[in-house]
Structure prediction request, 394 residues.
Amino acid sequence: MRKALILLFCISLLGYTNLWAQEETTTDTIPIKKPYGIRVGTDISKLARTAISDDYRGFSVNGDIRISNKFYVAAEFGNEKKEWDKDFLRADIEGNYFKVGVDYNAYNNWLDMNNAIYVGLRYGYSGFKETLHSYRVYNTNRELPTEIREVNEVFDNLNLHWLEFQFGVKTELFKNLFLDLHIELKTSMSETRPDNFGILYAPGFNRTYDTSSFGIGYGYTLTYLIPILKR
Amino acid sequence: MHKLAKALILLLIVSTYAGCTADDICSEETQTTPKLVISFSDNRASGVAKPLAHLKVRNLEYDTLVWDAPADTISIPLSTEADRSTYSFTILKEDVPHTNIYQFDYYREEIYVSRACGYRMRYTNLEAEDIPNSDNTPTWAKFITILNPIVDNEKSAHITILH
Prediction:
């Protein structure tokens, strides 16, 4: 009798778990498989600025890899040259940079859409040289003349490390072709300053500010998704 | 999501504003190329200030008047283009002009300040030499003493002229 009771209890328990399991399978929907792969592309705003402006030349390769439903590992590397000509200080800055980090997609896509509203974090490194062409000695008195100095001095092996926060949107224009628009907020962590000169601009970081470590930027990137698997 | 977007836009505006304000103009508070500060004291009682009722200071290299007023403490420019600046100091004593000529020699050092101000000058190893008048103009000053041979700011006098 007692054995029979235990057996009944076990069966009921089993039945209950079975029922519970069944419930879960019935509420499940047909899963939409998301594409996983590598996105590679370039920042078209850099190409446009290179074509339009005389004082800028830049190129970048941008890409990311999807590692989960919401997270992507992202990287960018590039080369930039910028001329600085303001207040009698004329210099140009040229060098390479890379950024690496993660993006988190906060947007819940409908069905098989692959858009994103994302936030990203990057570590950035820029290695560059500055050429100081000319400068003035700033003088508040106008009684004695001061000439502009033409020096053409090169400051080599400069670098700047920074942390970057990104906020942007990605839309799939056509199948596997994505347009990314984002803003960048950066803060410089450490830098190798030239001797008796300053860092006016760092490739990837953009212009610096004498009174703060902040930097700003934007990106307008076209990428192509090379699908590897669907999950 | 909207809150996040708003916060980000605000952050962007604030950081842009904070970054731009003081940066692209060379503010007046910034120490740029300093002038030479000269005080006048009594040659009979050391360290006692003795202002002049009226003083004219002329740069001889550029033939420019740089001071034409009563003088307690004056500040005059040093050339940014040469290691020497020569000045004549003229006062009137009973309507007769009295002139002393001093030649200032120094080393020049150009120091980077900021992107807006560019570079400034720092003068070191300041020396002053009494140059006799070529004509028979009488002199008024007795001695010239270097108080600070480094002209890096205008906070205190670098030179005192005793008379």
